[in-house]
Automatic annotation (TrEMBL):
NCBIfam families noted in UniProt: HeatShock_HspR
Pfam families found in the cross-reference section: MerR_1
Cross-referenced PROSITE patterns: HTH_MERR_2
Keywords: DNA-binding, Stress response
Superkingdom per UniProt: Bacteria
HTH merR-type domain ranges (all copies): 14-79
Name the record gives this protein: MerR family transcriptional regulator/heat shock protein HspR
GO MF entries: DNA binding; DNA-binding transcription factor activity
InterPro entries membership: DNA-bd_dom_put_sf, MerR-type_HTH_dom, MerR_fam
Amino acid sequence: MSDEVDEEAPIFAIAVAAELAGMHPQTLRQYDRLGLVVPARTQGGSRRYSLRHVKQLREVSALSADGMSLPAISRIIELENTVRALRGQVRDLELRLRDEVDSRSRVFAAGASGSVVTLRQGTRVRRATEVVVWRPPSD
């Protein structure tokens, strides 16, 4: 079992999330109606907040205290959500690229005429005619 905490897991009821964020539950309802911090819903319609939502609520509170308008705060949260989604896509693409590179591991050898020959991993080299001269380092 992993020790990592899933920041996206909707686990907190509105009263708990409000207490963790240092706000009144009615403020959370208002932010939900405005689309600032939109929690998940249970089948019965109850709001469920994640750790990420609590962090967003704290950020909204701090920005609001600094005099920023709610529409401006909404735009900041929207941009942060976009950045988070893009980072996830980059992470997924990096994993796919790493898997692809690992599956295409190549070995280079010198052919009988001195030319460079690419061999697939696991291919045996004929000793009389080819010698392996370079293998990409494995990460």
